[in-house]
Every structure is written in C-alpha cells, then in structure tokens.
Amino acid sequence: MHAYRSHTCAALTAANVGETVRLSGWVHRVRDHGGVLFIDLRDHYGITQVIADGDSPVFAELEKVRSEWCIRIDGDVLARDPGLVNPNLPTGEIEVFIRDLEVLGRAGELPLMVFGDQEYPEETRLRYRYLDLRREAMQRNMTLRSDVVASMRRRMWDKGFREYQTPIITASSPEGARDFLVPSRLHPGKFYALPQAPQQFKQLIMVSGFDKYFQIAPCFRDEDPRADRSPTDFYQLDMEMSFVTQQDVFDTIAPVLADVFEEFGGGRKVDAPQDWPQIAYADAAKWYGTDKPDLRNPIKMQDCSEHFRGSGFAIFAKLLEQEGTEIRAIPAPTGGSRKFCDRMNAFAQKEGLPGMGYIFWRAADNGEMEAAGPLAKNIGPERTEAIRQQLGLGVGDAAFFLGGKPKSFEKVAGKARDVIGAELGLTENDRFAFAWIVDFPIYERDEETGEIDFEHNPFSMPQGGMEALNGDPMAVRGFQYDLACNGYELVSGAIRNHKPEIMLKAFELAGYGAGEVKARFGALFNAFHFGAPPHGGCAAGIDRIVMLLADTANIREVIMFPMNQRAEDLMMAAPSDPTSDQLMELGLRVIPRD
C-alpha cells in the first residue's frame, strides 16, 4: 500500500465496502458521540467520514486529534445505515472504521477556522492565507482559476496561436502606470523595470514574422488598489496577430471568451458573440455614464437639454447658457414613487452632488396621468409631456436628471443608473452581457492649460492615418477597443500604429519630440523601419474574468496570494527593509522621508 493513501477523500463509494484503505488529509471537524468519535477527514478532493470507538486500537490517540491536524489513517470501509446516508457527499454512503493512525502534522491554536462560514477580517485571512486557502470556497475559486487558464490555453492553440514568453526584466517604458524598478548590480546606478505589459515585445514579435502570438502573461504596475484591481501584479491572456483588422481581432477573441463563460458560468446566460454590440466611446458615456457599461441593465440615459432650455427651472436653464453643458435624463421604469425618488436624491447627495432632480408620473384622481415632483411644477405640463414621450415612460415610472459639463457628472450618473436598475429589479443578474467599446479618442485637452495629451493608448493606429493627424487632434479616433462585461472592463486592445512617420506625428501632437520618442521607444521605432506588418491584438484580464465567474466583487478572492489594499504582503512581510550588505552591493542608499 502507498505510504500515505490508497484513495483520495472523495473516491470511496458503496463499491468499496469491505476494503481496507489508507487515507491522508486534514481533520475538518471532530464529533464525540459518547464513546464514538466521528471525524470528517478532508483533502483537496473532498471529505470522508471516519469513525472509531473503544474497539479501535488507536481510540486513545484519536481523542487527542484536533481541527486541522494532518493525519493518515488505515481502516475498513463500512456501509452507512440507510437512514444516515449523506446524499450531499460523493462518499456519503460509506464511512471508514479506523484501525491505525499516524499524525503527519499537528496544528496549534487556529487564528481562523477552516470549517464553517465564519467571517474573518481580511488582515487575518491574508496573514494566514495558507489556512484561508484550505476553506471550501477558496479551494473552489483557485481550482476555477486554474481550469479557466487551461481552457483559455486550449482554445488559443485550437485557433492556430502559439505561446511565446516575453521578458520579465526589461527597460522602463511609460504605459500609463508607475513602473516597479529593479536596481542593477552589474551596472551601478541603473535600473531595470518589471513590464507593465508585454506591449512592445508582442509588437516586436509581429515584426519578427510570427503571425500569431499569445501568452498567459504576468504584468506589473505600481497602482492604487481597487476592489477589482491588484495594486502590484496581475495576469492577462495576451494576444497579437499580423495582417488583421479590428473586426478580425473581435472575431478571434470573442468566441474564446464566450466559450469560457459558457463552460464555467454555472448555467448563467451568455450572450452570443455575434450579438455583442459595438458602441462608440462617446455613446457609451452618453447612454451609460461609463466606458464599461453593464448591459444587463436596460436603462439608457438620454440628452433632454432642449426641454429645459429657457424653462422655468432656473438652475438648469442658466446652466445651459454655458458652453458645453447639457441635461441628461435617467429613465426609471416602475420607479414612480416619491419615496424612491427621495432615496435616489439622497444617493446623489452622498456622491457629493447637491441633489438629483426628478419627475414621476402617477394616476390623478380623475383617472388621467399627471406628472409630479419639483421639476414638473417648474417647467410646466407641455415640457413634462415632451420629456415623457421622449423617454417612453408612463404611469408608475420616473426620470432623474443631472446637468453640467458631461465629464463632471457622468460618473455619478452611471452609478445612479446602476443603483436604479438594481433597486427596481430591472437588472438581469443571471446573465453575462458583453459589449465592444470602440472609437476611443486618442487625445484630450487640459481645460486649464489648453495643452494636448494622450487620453488613451498612444500606440493605436489613428483612424484615417496621417491625414487624420493633420486635422483637429480632438477629432482623432483610434482603432482602439475595450470589451465590457457586467460593468467591468475585461479586454483592452488596438490595431497598432506600425508606421514610424505616423508614430512621430502622433507623439508630436501630444508634445513629445522625436528625440524623446526614440529614447523611450527606440526598439519599436527602429523596428518599424524594417518592413513592419499591420498588426493588432488585445489582452483579457484573467483575474477579473475569474472574479465574475466566481460571482465575487473582490479580486483578492480569486488570487492565491494577493497583496492587501496598501500593497503589502502580510504573510511574507513584504515590502521589507533591505540589509546594509544588499544596499552596498547595489550602490544604493535609502533616504528616510520626513
């Protein structure tokens, strides 16, 4: 017999009754029923109930066993009485009578219990992550993650892609976030960087003549943490293709992701890739208040400025006299009660706004429909009726209004739309709803200084090429795209700019001279002079994909050893102070901050 086990703790069934077996695992829980000990023995695969009474030669030793001790037992497989069968366990028809015991690893007092669903502070869970990971939900999440990655790999190979690895130690390359710098011992005073993404390398792979590339790539960014973003590192399904259009990229990656969500989505509805809408960035902001809309919610915001221009509601009327302002309406089907409207008004105040105007429609005493709320009284019945007809609302419905320059209120409007959809039961929770966001602006203008800088990916090919760059920079759109799902950005990509003269012009408009471009992106710029093919690709965030599939809103629930929100590894005590010898070897000195 094997030194530790003949079966896993999920393998035994009624067919094994009468056999002598060996199991190893952790003591999940112990129950003492007056001279009979019942132990749930757990390993990665499942649980088997093992028992002992006074007839067992190791009964006295078993009485000392506690939760999370790692043990090996030998015993006889018995059939449970019919009334004691547990249909929720694969091993629920049997139990193992213990004949021999070996303690493989004792456990001291536990800082958190593995058995049960108790909530523990995140600090405790991260400090003792190895215990937290033993819990059923975490075992399930990490297994899911591994299976998702394996599925992605198979599907990419099936589409004719090969996996290539790009460097982890490279040069610093500004790509929208802070680099993690690595000091060089052999070149004192100089630094490598951990790659924010394999962006330049995968483009160089295309220049090198490899037609299709993918990689499960680690990326490193010194970012401020959020619930859906790791502050240090993350993994992405990275891909690039030569001689492709934007639609070719969509047609390649969309079926891969749709199949992954079908496979691991637990029966939730997955929109077919051919039904994923392509929404212009400007329209996404106008309709949903975000470039990562949750389309499970059917609410679409609309511009209602004309109904308030010159109206009796002075706040909006005066606002519209300023250039670049508008009034946007958020329809709220079935939200037509003063109580709900007051609740949404309070929501806006919590978000830092003075409030949120509203109108709701109800049945009047004479049986006709009437508009109610402060806005309705100020703008009059004709304007109110025009708003209702534009929004397609009726009795029992409401609409909420925000005004100003769109960038000042769109984020709150988007949040309000999500809250309204959730509270009114309009959001279809049992579904994954995807949308491609396209036509991103390449540039933005600083309102204070008037200077132009990149708003989005500087490596994207501008739509219209050099001709577009010779016009109004603010009108330039890039062949850049994101894929949104249920309110999260899952994919980001672009058709790349592969022509050096267009690259120089694009950076020149943002205030970067040719010398700076060559210094920062020298390898890419030089490579483009040697027959670079048109190419494009994207990267899908694995952590976020698994987070959605696991139905959790916290990305740390699907990362095996995550940092906390202060970018600290509590388990490994990182970051840590370097030793004097390490600093001397690297020629570095730490200057304390005041």
From TrEMBL:
<dbReference type="InterPro" id="IPR004364">
    <property type="entry name" value="Aa-tRNA-synt_II"/>
</dbReference>
<keyword id="KW-0067">ATP-binding</keyword>
<dbReference type="Pfam" id="PF01336">
    <property type="entry name" value="tRNA_anti-codon"/>
</dbReference>
<dbReference type="GO" id="GO:0050560">
    <property type="term" value="F:aspartate-tRNA(Asn) ligase activity"/>
</dbReference>
<dbReference type="GO" id="GO:0006422">
    <property type="term" value="P:aspartyl-tRNA aminoacylation"/>
</dbReference>
<feature type="site" description="Important for tRNA non-discrimination">
    <location>
        <position position="33"/>
    </location>
</feature>
<dbReference type="InterPro" id="IPR029351">
    <property type="entry name" value="GAD_dom"/>
</dbReference>
<feature type="region of interest" description="Aspartate">
    <location>
        <begin position="199"/>
        <end position="202"/>
    </location>
</feature>
<dbReference type="InterPro" id="IPR047089">
    <property type="entry name" value="Asp-tRNA-ligase_1_N"/>
</dbReference>
<dbReference type="InterPro" id="IPR004524">
    <property type="entry name" value="Asp-tRNA-ligase_1"/>
</dbReference>
<dbReference type="InterPro" id="IPR004365">
    <property type="entry name" value="NA-bd_OB_tRNA"/>
</dbReference>
<feature type="binding site">
    <location>
        <position position="175"/>
    </location>
    <ligand>
        <name>L-aspartate</name>
    </ligand>
</feature>
<dbReference type="InterPro" id="IPR045864">
    <property type="entry name" value="aa-tRNA-synth_II/BPL/LPL"/>
</dbReference>
<keyword id="KW-0436">Ligase</keyword>
<dbReference type="Pfam" id="PF02938">
    <property type="entry name" value="GAD"/>
</dbReference>
<dbReference type="GO" id="GO:0003676">
    <property type="term" value="F:nucleic acid binding"/>
</dbReference>
<dbReference type="GO" id="GO:0005524">
    <property type="term" value="F:ATP binding"/>
</dbReference>
<feature type="binding site">
    <location>
        <position position="221"/>
    </location>
    <ligand>
        <name>L-aspartate</name>
    </ligand>
</feature>
<dbReference type="InterPro" id="IPR004115">
    <property type="entry name" value="GAD-like_sf"/>
</dbReference>
<feature type="binding site">
    <location>
        <begin position="221"/>
        <end position="223"/>
    </location>
    <ligand>
        <name>ATP</name>
    </ligand>
</feature>
<dbReference type="InterPro" id="IPR012340">
    <property type="entry name" value="NA-bd_OB-fold"/>
</dbReference>
<comment type="function">
    <text>Aspartyl-tRNA synthetase with relaxed tRNA specificity since it is able to aspartylate not only its cognate tRNA(Asp) but also tRNA(Asn). Reaction proceeds in two steps: L-aspartate is first activated by ATP to form Asp-AMP and then transferred to the acceptor end of tRNA(Asp/Asn).</text>
</comment>
<feature type="binding site">
    <location>
        <position position="456"/>
    </location>
    <ligand>
        <name>L-aspartate</name>
    </ligand>
</feature>
<keyword id="KW-0963">Cytoplasm</keyword>
<dbReference type="GO" id="GO:0004815">
    <property type="term" value="F:aspartate-tRNA ligase activity"/>
</dbReference>
<comment type="subunit">
    <text>Homodimer.</text>
</comment>
<dbReference type="InterPro" id="IPR006195">
    <property type="entry name" value="aa-tRNA-synth_II"/>
</dbReference>
<feature type="binding site">
    <location>
        <position position="496"/>
    </location>
    <ligand>
        <name>L-aspartate</name>
    </ligand>
</feature>
<dbReference type="Pfam" id="PF00152">
    <property type="entry name" value="tRNA-synt_2"/>
</dbReference>
<feature type="binding site">
    <location>
        <position position="489"/>
    </location>
    <ligand>
        <name>ATP</name>
    </ligand>
</feature>
<comment type="similarity">
    <text>Belongs to the class-II aminoacyl-tRNA synthetase family. Type 1 subfamily.</text>
</comment>
<feature type="domain" description="Aminoacyl-transfer RNA synthetases class-II family profile">
    <location>
        <begin position="144"/>
        <end position="562"/>
    </location>
</feature>
<dbReference type="GO" id="GO:0005737">
    <property type="term" value="C:cytoplasm"/>
</dbReference>
<feature type="site" description="Important for tRNA non-discrimination">
    <location>
        <position position="83"/>
    </location>
</feature>
<keyword id="KW-0648">Protein biosynthesis</keyword>
<dbReference type="InterPro" id="IPR002312">
    <property type="entry name" value="Asp/Asn-tRNA-synth_IIb"/>
</dbReference>
<protein>
    <recommendedName>
        <fullName>Aspartate--tRNA(Asp/Asn) ligase</fullName>
        <ecNumber>6.1.1.23</ecNumber>
    </recommendedName>
</protein>
<keyword id="KW-0030">Aminoacyl-tRNA synthetase</keyword>
<feature type="binding site">
    <location>
        <begin position="541"/>
        <end position="544"/>
    </location>
    <ligand>
        <name>ATP</name>
    </ligand>
</feature>
<keyword id="KW-0547">Nucleotide-binding</keyword>
